[in-house]
Structures
1.
Amino acid sequence: MELPFRIGQGWDTHRIEAGRPLILGGITIPSEFGLAGHSDADVLSHAITDAVLGALALGDIGLHFPDTAPEWRGAGSIQFLLHAQKLAADGGYSIANVDASVILERPKLKNFRTPIRERLASALGLPLSSVSVKFKTAETVGPVGQGLSCECHAIVLLTRS
Ligand code: C5P
Ligand code: MG
C-alpha cells in the first residue's frame, strides 16, 4: 500500500580528530578539530540521509555508499542526502520537514544554525521553515561529553508528492 506519509529516523556518530575539518550540514565550522571519517564526516548530513532512507525502508547510508569505496573518500556528504531524496522522489515522495539534533560539547554552534539550515534547505529545495537543527552538549558525560565524539539524531517526514 502506498502510504500518504512515511516517517524516518537517523542517528550517526563520528570521532573527533585534530586536523580534520568540522563540517555540519555542508557548512565548515571554525574549530581546532574536526570529525574522522571516510567521507567529509558530515555527521548531520549522514543522520538526515539515514532518516530519509529509513522512511523509505531502503536500508542505510552504508548500503548505498560503502565506506570502503574509494570514490567516497573525502566525498561531500550533501550528495548522499540528495541521492536519498532522489530515491524518495522515485518512490513518489517528497520531504515535508526535517528535524535534527547535533550533540557536541564544543565549539558553540548556535551562531551557525542559520547557515546550516539555509545550506540544507537550499540543497533539498525546501523552505527554511521546513529544516530545523538543534544543538546540545552532553553535559561532560560520556564520549560526547568528554570531547571524543559528536552525535546527531534526525527525523524526517515524507509526504506523497
Ligand atoms: O547542552 P545544553 O542544554 O547546555 O545547551 C544549551 C544551549 O547551548 C543549546 O540549547 C544550544 O543552543 C547551545 N549549544 C551550542 N553549541 C553546542 C551545544 C549547545 O550552541 N555545541
Ligand atoms: Mg557518518
2.
Amino acid sequence: MLNRDATVIAVSVDPYHRAVVAYGHQAAVSIAERFVEQVLKPISPRARFERRSDLQWLISLSVDDGGHDALIDATRRKLGAHTVSDGDRSAFLDVCMGVAIGADLRADEADLVRHADAALCVALTRRVHVEFAHPSMVRQISAEVDLAAWLTRSVERDFSVFYQPIVAMADRRVVGYESLLRWHTESGVLAPDAFLAVAEGISLLAPIGRHAIGEAIRDLATDITETAGDEAFVSLNLSGQQLSDEGLVCYIDGLIRDHRVDPARVWIEVREDQVVRLETSAARTVNGLHDLGCTICVDDLGAGFSALRYVRDLPVDVLKVDRTLIAQLVHSHSDRAVVRAISEMAAATGLRMVAEGIESDDVLEVLTEFGFDYAQGFFFGRPEPLATWTGR
Ligand code: G
Ligand code: MN
C-alpha cells in the first residue's frame, strides 16, 4: 500500500508516434517493452510497474523501498530519448514522463496518479522529457478543459463585438472604433485574453472570429457611417491562427464588396510577433489584405520584442504604440526616448501612429509633441456595445 511518501511516475513511451511510424506499431510496442525491462526496471527493482496501454506505464514506489532516490535521479538525468537494443540493431525511442513526488505534493495515492498525469501532460505540451508535478497543474489543466467544453457548447449569439472609440489628436473627434470580441457567460463578460488560447486550441476561434468580423463590417457600413461619417473606420484584431486561415482574405473581400465600404476604412490589427517571419501564411494574409486596400496596423507595438524590420518588408500603414510605453511617458525618460525614436521612424516612413491606453489627459501634450495622429483609451471611452456610442 502506498502512502504519502510514495512517488508515482506516468510514462508515455513513443508519445509522438515516431517509433510507430518508423518501425510499425507491433515492433514499436515490443521495443517499448524491452525499454521497460532493460532500462526502467533495473534502475529501481522494487518499484511497481503497471501497464496502462500499449505504450503507457505507471511506476510507483515508496520512499522506504530501496532505489527511490536513484529512480528520481534517473528521471532527472538519464531518461529521455533512447536507443534500445533490438536484436542486432538498436532502435530509437522517445520517452516522456510526469513525476509526482508525494512528499512534495502532500497527496495520497489516487491523487498522486492524477498529479503524475498532469505533469506528463505538461511535459508533452512543452516537448520536454520529464516534468515534475506542481499542485497547480491539475487545477490549471482542469480549468482549461472546462473552458474548452464550455466554449464548444456556446453558440454564436454568446459572442458579440464591443467598440472602443479612437479619436483624432487634432480635434479629439471620434474617427473610428476598435472592434473587440466579447464572450457573454453566466459569470460575466469575458475579453479574449481569458479564452483566446483555449479557443485556438480547439479550432473554434476561426468561426467565432469570422462571425465577429462580419458583424464589425456590417456595423461600419450602417450605424458607424451614419453617426461618425463615411470616412470613419473600424479596426479588426486578427490572431495568429486567424491569419493562417487561407480563406480569410476572400471572406473579408466578400464582406467589403457586399457592404460597399471603402476597404481603407477596414483597419487590420496584427501583433508584430505574428508577422515578423516573412514567407509565412500570416504574412501572406497581411499582404493579401493590403492588396484589397485594407489599412494594416501593427498592434501593441513595444509590448514584446520589436524587430521593426516589418516596417521595411511588410505593407504597414499604422503603428499602434502599446499602453505600457505610453503609461509612463510623462515621467519616464527612457520611455520618452523609445517613443521619440518610434515617432521619428514613423514620420520618416510615412506611417500614422495611434497611442493606446490613454487613461488621463496629462499625457496628451507629449503625444502632440511626438506627432501622434490618433489616441485611444479609457480616458476617451471603454470598449462598449455599439449602441452606447451611436445611441441606436
Ligand atoms: O491588444 P489590444 O490593444 O487589441 O487590446 C485591447 C484591450 O485593451 C481591450 O480589451 C481593452 O479593454 C484594453 N484597453 C483599452 N484601453 C485601455 C486603457 O486605457 N487602459 C487599459 N488598462 N486597458 C485598455
Ligand atoms: Mn488591438
